[in-house]
Design a protein that fits this description.
The chain has four helices and 18 strands. A hairpin with a 2-residue loop joins strand 12 and strand 13. Helix 2 packs antiparallel against helix 4.
Length: 385
């Protein structure tokens, strides 16, 4: 049986194809009994072959699952009313416009510059149409560049899905007490003394936060007290395009990045138990302080995910859901985890794979040890005949 997973993202004339093919490695039954091992003398060889086949199968299945998480980006699933693409016609020019901007934002035919490479600037661009999709994926093509050298640039970009829009503030150009989801591309580290240098994260750093409006973004600690997870990504002054994909489906939030010009997504954040309502607005904002950068949005493309829901989920009023995350630990407990990995998140695919690998290894070791013990016992019994 041949299973094929295909991922395509059409972004500004660029075709991103990722194909993963693998064959079902059904090599028959692995029947290992202690009697057969003793009689045939193939105990170690048989167990090792079975172990290798099983490990390879699980590895291939896991690899295909991770890579197929991102939508294929088919144009028929593109929601144009929530997408921002060149040449940005009609942005903010009339009451019927689908996108509006504020602050230092400059709209050209090639990019939307949220902030120039100047101090103390902030700007944003927001979709004027609320999104009522239960399952969606947003692809953001962006560029952060400037004259600042290492550690002499800031502050970063925020990608938003929130209840309110066009509310300027100190959190990457948006308000602190927001309601909804935020993905931060933070290029400047504020907390210089609150983390162990030996295990420190590097900047730029991408993180996620879900808020019901009661918890503000902690600027002094770079949002570590409320983040759900994150990863480092070298996104500044790249000659090639850089991309960010945000996927929300059936309570699972996944953030992927493509910043190395390899035409492949890399997982940054993967967390379950996320509850987001419908009827919120998508937007992007950026800010500079004493240090600065050009923060450009090239495109924001929204795709609808075709996902089946239960009858109970379909009858639920999704506009009344309060943004929240079901975690084993409170976000405040993340303050002492300098790696940026939220310890209370559910098991990701690779963690499950490693657990299965350890379990299989344990089974094989037990089988081999049992076979050796049985063989020695048989040899000892033969001496009495």
């Amino acid at each position: 049986m041949l299973n094929t997973f295909r991922v395509e993202t059409n972004t500004q004339g660029r075709n991103k194809n990722i194909k993963h093919k693998f064959s079902n490695m059904a090599a028959g039954r692995c029947e290992i009994t202690t009697m057969n091992i003793y009689r045939t003398g193939i105990n170690n060889r048989m167990a090792f072959r079975c172990f290798l086949r099983t490990v390879c199968l699980f590895w291939l299945l896991q690899f295909a699952t991770v890579r197929s998480d991102i939508t294929d980006g088919n144009t028929e699933h593109l929601k144009r009313e929530h997408s921002l693409v060149k040449p940005y016609q009609g942005v903010g020019t009339s009451p019927s416009s689908q996108w509006d901007f504020s602050g230092s934002t400059l709209v050209t035919s090639q990019y939307v510059r949220l902030t120039p490479d100047d101090r103390s600037k902030e700007g944003s661009i927001w979709n004027t149409v609320p999104c009522f999709l239960k399952d969606w994926e947003m692809h953001v093509q962006f560029k952060v560049h400037g004259s600042g050298k290492k550690n002499l640039h800031g502050d970063g970009i925020g990608i938003w899905y929130t209840k309110e829009r066009l509310h300027p503030g100190p959190t990457f150009g948006n308000q602190d007490h927001f309601v909804g989801l935020a993905i931060f591309v933070d290029t400047f580290r504020n907390d210089l003394h609150g983390m162990d240098v030996s295990v420190d994260r590097s900047f730029p750093f991408i993180s996620a936060m879900v808020s019901n409006g009661t918890v503000p973004y902690d600027h002094g600690k770079d949002g570590r007290t409320s983040e759900l997870g994150g990863c480092s990504a070298e996104i500044r002054n790249k000659e090639h395009d850089t991309y960010l994909a945000i996927r929300y489906s059936k309570g699972r939030l996944t953030v992927m990045v493509d910043v190395d010009d390899k035409n492949e997504w890399k997982e940054c954040i993967d967390i379950g138990g996320v509850r987001l309502p419908t009827g919120y607005y998508f937007g992007a904002s950026a800010a500079t302080g004493d240090l600065s950068d050009n923060h450009d949005i090239i495109s924001m493309k929204m795709y609808q995910l075709m996902v089946e829901h239960t009858e109970e989920e379909e009858n639920l009023d999704w506009t009344k859901i309060e943004p929240s995350v079901s975690l084993l630990k409170s976000p405040k407990d993340n303050i002492d985890d300098p790696t940026g990995n939220f310890r209370g998140t559910p098991l990701t695919g690779w963690k499950v794979f490693l657990l299965l690998l350890c379990a299989l290894l344990g089974i094989v070791v037990c089988a081999v040890v049992g076979a050796v013990v049985f063989q020695k016992r048989q040899e000892r019994n033969k001496r009495f005949y």
